[in-house]
Amino acid sequence: MKKYILLLSLIISSGVYCQKNIYESIRFDELSETHRILAIVPFLTNLDLDDTSSKEELGTLEKEEGYAVQNALETYFSRGKKRKKFTIAFQDVERTNAILAENNITYKNMDVYTIEELSKILKVDGIISGTLDLNILLSKGVSTNFNLVDFFMGNSTFGRIGIKISDGKSGKLLWKYEKEITKKTGKNTLALIEDMMKRAARKFPYEKERLKRKRRD
Q1: Boundaries of domain holding 90
Q2: CATH at 79
Q3: What angle do CA 61, 63, 69 make, to 5 degrees?
Q4: DSSP one-letter string for 25-47
Q5: Is residue 12 part of a domain?
Q6: Which pLDDT tens digit goes with each residue over 192-216?
Q7: Cα–Cα distance measured from residue 194 to residue 14, given in angstroms and rounded to the nearest whole number
Q8: In a domain, 93, yes or no
Q9: What is the model's pTM?
Q10: Is residue 199 part of a domain?
Q11: Within 10 Å of residue 152's Cβ, how many Cβ atoms?
């Protein structure tokens, strides 16, 4: 009986935790009124690996993980686009990356550019960006086998991810979703993003059904 109570408590607390980690600006409707297209840029990654990778190798791996999240988000949004699920469109990431390269914006120096500058260069209304902290290579795939020993030893936690949407004109943060990455969130980057966005679906600001609910309320 105690086991069931503990499990129920964990499920409830995880649901509350998810809600607390979703932020939406009170000015979202005002700032996003004219939004038609957003660009997804590679995520800035920080890897903390146990191996002896050189600084150069680590930098390459961080770049790969950052681009993996960018691609996974595009895959997720593309599926929703086919079902006409969103109120806005998303710039093709190949086009995004090509434009960045044409303007000498690389993974290493992208963080020195403001949201306003990136939006103007990419000719979009807003930017989807984020950070990724990992102690494994999620894009390579990981074991999702879970046991209590891993839980209490801390081996079930792989890191943390933060996804944010910013307004292109003002640079203001419109929406942010942070989540801990564990064995339960998926075996690779694509599975992680699928799990995250499904959990946040009712809170995703450009989701058509959410907009309908807001109008009804």
Answers
A1: 22-216
A2: 3.40.50.10610
A3: 105
A4: -TTHHHHHTT--EEEE-PPEEEE
A5: no
A6: 999 999 888 888 999 887 767 766 6
A7: 17
A8: yes
A9: 0.83
A10: yes
A11: 9
Q: Is 15 exposed, middle or buried (0-12, 13-18, 19+ CB in 10 A)?
A: exposed
Q: How far apart are CA 207 and CA 209, in angstroms?
A: 6
3-state secondary structure of 169: coil
Distance (Å, rounded) from C-alpha 147 to C-alpha 156?
8
Q: Which candidate, 133, 127, 144, places its Cα nearest to that of 70?
A: 127
At residue 114, what is the residue type?
T
Question: In this structure, is residue 11 part of a structural domain?
Answer: no
Number of domains in the chain: 1
In the chain, where does DSSP find H-type helix?
A: 2-20, 28-32, 55-82, 93-102, 115-122, 148-153, 189-200, 208-216
Dihedral Cα 104, 106, 108, 112, nearest 10 deg:
60
19-76 residue pLDDT tens = 468 999 999 999 999 999 999 999 999 998 877 678 889 899 999 999 999 999 999 9
Whether residue 17 is predicted with pLDDT greater than 50 in this model: the reply is: no
Q: Which two tokens stand for residue 202?
A: 């009712």
What tens digit of pLDDT does each residue of 66-79 get? 999 999 999 999 98
Task: Give the pairing type, strands 89-90 and 173-182.
Answer: unpaired
Contact 160, 178 (CB under 8 A): yes
Give the total residue count for the chain.
Answer: 217
With beta carbons less than 8 A apart as the criterion, state whether 129 and 174 touch.
no
Cβ partners under 8 Å of residue 159, min gap 6: 48, 132, 133, 134, 135, 136, 138, 180, 181
